[in-house]
Amino acid sequence: MMCNLQVALAIVEASFNRLCSIVYHTKLFLRTKKWATICIVSQWTTGIILTIPNISFNDSSCDDQLWKAIYRFVMIVIVPSIICLMNNMMIFKYVRSSTNRVQTSLENAKNNAQQHQHLSRRDLHLLRHMIVMFCIFIAGWSPIYICAAIGSAISITSTIASVFIILAELSLLIDISNLFLYNHELRRYYREKICHRH
Length: 198
Hints:
The chain crosses the membrane at residues 35-57, 69-91, 131-154, 160-181. It is a single chain. The protein has one domain (2-100, 116-197): Up-down Bundle (Rhopdopsin 7-helix transmembrane proteins). It is 82% helix and 0% strand. It has helices spanning 2-23, 33-56, 66-100, 109-150, 158-182, 184-197. The longest helix is centred in the middle third of the chain and has 42 residues, at 109-150.
Protein backbone atom coordinates (compact mmCIF):
# COMPACT_ATOMS: atom_id res chain seq x y z
CA MET A 1 0.00 0.00 0.00
CA MET A 2 2.82 2.40 0.89
CA CYS A 3 4.30 2.60 -2.65
CA ASN A 4 0.94 3.14 -4.34
CA LEU A 5 -0.07 5.69 -1.73
CA GLN A 6 3.19 7.60 -2.26
CA VAL A 7 2.47 7.85 -6.00
CA ALA A 8 -0.97 9.30 -5.29
CA LEU A 9 0.49 11.66 -2.67
CA ALA A 10 3.22 12.77 -5.10
CA ILE A 11 0.57 13.80 -7.64
CA VAL A 12 -1.37 15.60 -4.89
CA GLU A 13 1.84 17.33 -3.78
CA ALA A 14 2.56 18.39 -7.37
CA SER A 15 -0.92 19.91 -7.73
CA PHE A 16 -0.54 21.69 -4.38
CA ASN A 17 2.87 23.07 -5.35
CA ARG A 18 1.49 24.26 -8.67
CA LEU A 19 -1.35 25.98 -6.83
CA CYS A 20 1.13 27.73 -4.52
CA SER A 21 3.43 28.75 -7.39
CA ILE A 22 0.52 30.32 -9.30
CA VAL A 23 -1.44 31.94 -6.46
CA TYR A 24 1.60 32.95 -4.34
CA HIS A 25 4.10 33.50 -7.15
CA THR A 26 5.67 36.47 -5.30
CA LYS A 27 6.58 34.39 -2.23
CA LEU A 28 10.29 33.59 -2.53
CA PHE A 29 10.08 30.97 0.23
CA LEU A 30 8.17 28.67 -2.14
CA ARG A 31 11.27 28.46 -4.36
CA THR A 32 13.71 27.48 -1.62
CA LYS A 33 15.21 24.11 -0.71
CA LYS A 34 13.61 24.44 2.72
CA TRP A 35 10.13 24.47 1.13
CA ALA A 36 11.03 21.46 -1.04
CA THR A 37 12.22 19.60 2.08
CA ILE A 38 9.00 20.47 3.94
CA CYS A 39 6.93 19.13 1.01
CA ILE A 40 8.90 15.86 0.80
CA VAL A 41 8.84 15.27 4.56
CA SER A 42 5.10 16.04 4.77
CA GLN A 43 4.36 13.67 1.88
CA TRP A 44 6.29 10.77 3.46
CA THR A 45 4.88 11.51 6.94
CA THR A 46 1.33 11.48 5.57
CA GLY A 47 2.04 8.23 3.73
CA ILE A 48 3.39 6.56 6.86
CA ILE A 49 0.48 7.75 9.03
CA LEU A 50 -2.13 6.60 6.51
CA THR A 51 -0.47 3.18 6.22
CA ILE A 52 -0.52 2.52 10.00
CA PRO A 53 -4.11 1.14 10.12
CA ASN A 54 -3.29 -1.26 7.31
CA ILE A 55 -0.11 -2.49 9.05
CA SER A 56 -1.59 -2.56 12.58
CA PHE A 57 -4.22 -5.12 11.60
CA ASN A 58 -1.96 -7.10 9.27
CA ASP A 59 -2.98 -10.58 10.35
CA SER A 60 -2.38 -13.39 7.84
CA SER A 61 -5.89 -14.67 8.46
CA CYS A 62 -7.40 -11.24 7.83
CA ASP A 63 -5.81 -10.48 4.46
CA ASP A 64 -9.12 -10.48 2.63
CA GLN A 65 -10.98 -8.23 5.04
CA LEU A 66 -13.37 -5.95 3.18
CA TRP A 67 -12.66 -2.89 5.30
CA LYS A 68 -8.95 -3.03 4.39
CA ALA A 69 -9.72 -3.13 0.67
CA ILE A 70 -12.19 -0.23 1.02
CA TYR A 71 -9.69 1.72 3.16
CA ARG A 72 -6.96 1.29 0.52
CA PHE A 73 -9.35 2.33 -2.27
CA VAL A 74 -10.47 5.43 -0.38
CA MET A 75 -6.94 6.48 0.66
CA ILE A 76 -5.24 5.82 -2.69
CA VAL A 77 -7.97 6.79 -5.16
CA ILE A 78 -10.87 8.77 -3.62
CA VAL A 79 -9.14 11.17 -1.20
CA PRO A 80 -6.30 12.16 -3.58
CA SER A 81 -8.89 12.66 -6.36
CA ILE A 82 -10.88 15.07 -4.20
CA ILE A 83 -7.77 17.00 -3.11
CA CYS A 84 -6.43 17.25 -6.69
CA LEU A 85 -9.84 18.34 -7.95
CA MET A 86 -10.00 21.08 -5.30
CA ASN A 87 -6.45 22.27 -6.08
CA ASN A 88 -7.13 22.33 -9.81
CA MET A 89 -10.42 24.18 -9.31
CA MET A 90 -8.63 26.82 -7.19
CA ILE A 91 -5.94 27.19 -9.88
CA PHE A 92 -8.59 27.55 -12.58
CA LYS A 93 -10.54 30.08 -10.50
CA TYR A 94 -7.42 32.15 -9.81
CA VAL A 95 -6.26 32.13 -13.44
CA ARG A 96 -9.73 33.02 -14.68
CA SER A 97 -10.12 35.89 -12.19
CA SER A 98 -6.66 37.27 -13.00
CA THR A 99 -7.45 37.09 -16.72
CA ASN A 100 -10.77 38.91 -16.27
CA ARG A 101 -9.42 41.52 -13.86
CA VAL A 102 -10.12 45.04 -15.03
CA GLN A 103 -7.06 47.30 -15.21
CA THR A 104 -7.45 50.92 -14.09
CA SER A 105 -4.65 52.36 -16.20
CA LEU A 106 -5.53 52.71 -19.89
CA GLU A 107 -1.88 53.01 -20.84
CA ASN A 108 -0.95 49.58 -19.44
CA ALA A 109 -4.22 47.87 -20.33
CA LYS A 110 -2.98 46.35 -23.57
CA ASN A 111 0.31 45.06 -22.07
CA ASN A 112 -1.46 43.69 -19.00
CA ALA A 113 -4.10 41.97 -21.13
CA GLN A 114 -1.36 40.27 -23.16
CA GLN A 115 0.48 39.19 -19.99
CA HIS A 116 -2.71 37.81 -18.44
CA GLN A 117 -3.59 36.03 -21.67
CA HIS A 118 -0.10 34.48 -21.79
CA LEU A 119 -0.31 33.50 -18.10
CA SER A 120 -3.76 32.08 -18.63
CA ARG A 121 -2.75 30.03 -21.70
CA ARG A 122 0.40 28.66 -20.05
CA ASP A 123 -1.26 27.86 -16.72
CA LEU A 124 -4.33 26.33 -18.31
CA HIS A 125 -2.09 24.15 -20.47
CA LEU A 126 -0.24 22.98 -17.36
CA LEU A 127 -3.51 22.48 -15.52
CA ARG A 128 -4.78 20.31 -18.38
CA HIS A 129 -1.55 18.33 -18.30
CA MET A 130 -1.87 17.69 -14.55
CA ILE A 131 -5.51 16.64 -14.91
CA VAL A 132 -4.62 14.22 -17.72
CA MET A 133 -1.82 12.74 -15.59
CA PHE A 134 -4.15 12.26 -12.66
CA CYS A 135 -6.82 10.71 -14.87
CA ILE A 136 -4.21 8.25 -16.19
CA PHE A 137 -3.33 7.36 -12.59
CA ILE A 138 -6.98 6.94 -11.56
CA ALA A 139 -7.85 4.90 -14.67
CA GLY A 140 -4.84 2.66 -14.08
CA TRP A 141 -5.13 2.07 -10.34
CA SER A 142 -8.88 2.20 -9.68
CA PRO A 143 -9.71 -1.20 -11.26
CA ILE A 144 -7.25 -3.12 -9.10
CA TYR A 145 -8.55 -1.57 -5.87
CA ILE A 146 -12.19 -1.94 -6.89
CA CYS A 147 -11.38 -5.57 -7.75
CA ALA A 148 -9.86 -6.06 -4.28
CA ALA A 149 -12.87 -4.40 -2.61
CA ILE A 150 -15.51 -6.48 -4.41
CA GLY A 151 -13.39 -9.62 -4.76
CA SER A 152 -15.04 -11.25 -1.76
CA ALA A 153 -18.53 -10.78 -3.24
CA ILE A 154 -17.74 -11.53 -6.90
CA SER A 155 -15.31 -14.14 -8.18
CA ILE A 156 -12.62 -12.51 -10.36
CA THR A 157 -10.36 -14.68 -12.49
CA SER A 158 -6.60 -14.51 -12.18
CA THR A 159 -6.42 -13.33 -15.82
CA ILE A 160 -8.56 -10.27 -15.09
CA ALA A 161 -6.55 -9.55 -11.94
CA SER A 162 -3.32 -9.80 -13.98
CA VAL A 163 -4.71 -7.40 -16.59
CA PHE A 164 -5.58 -4.91 -13.83
CA ILE A 165 -2.06 -5.20 -12.36
CA ILE A 166 -0.49 -4.58 -15.80
CA LEU A 167 -2.85 -1.63 -16.33
CA ALA A 168 -1.79 -0.13 -13.00
CA GLU A 169 1.92 -0.53 -13.77
CA LEU A 170 1.42 0.90 -17.28
CA SER A 171 -0.33 3.97 -15.90
CA LEU A 172 2.56 4.54 -13.50
CA LEU A 173 5.10 4.18 -16.33
CA ILE A 174 3.12 6.60 -18.53
CA ASP A 175 2.93 9.18 -15.71
CA ILE A 176 6.67 8.97 -14.98
CA SER A 177 7.56 9.20 -18.69
CA ASN A 178 5.11 12.07 -19.11
CA LEU A 179 6.66 13.98 -16.21
CA PHE A 180 10.14 13.54 -17.62
CA LEU A 181 9.15 14.49 -21.19
CA TYR A 182 7.13 17.52 -20.07
CA ASN A 183 9.75 18.92 -17.67
CA HIS A 184 12.10 20.85 -19.97
CA GLU A 185 14.29 22.04 -17.09
CA LEU A 186 14.85 18.50 -15.82
CA ARG A 187 15.74 17.28 -19.32
CA ARG A 188 18.15 20.18 -19.77
CA TYR A 189 19.71 19.44 -16.36
CA TYR A 190 20.31 15.78 -17.27
CA ARG A 191 21.64 16.75 -20.70
CA GLU A 192 24.15 19.15 -19.12
CA LYS A 193 25.21 16.55 -16.54
CA ILE A 194 25.68 13.82 -19.14
CA CYS A 195 27.44 16.06 -21.67
CA HIS A 196 29.64 17.61 -18.97
CA ARG A 197 30.95 14.17 -17.93
CA HIS A 198 32.08 13.24 -21.46
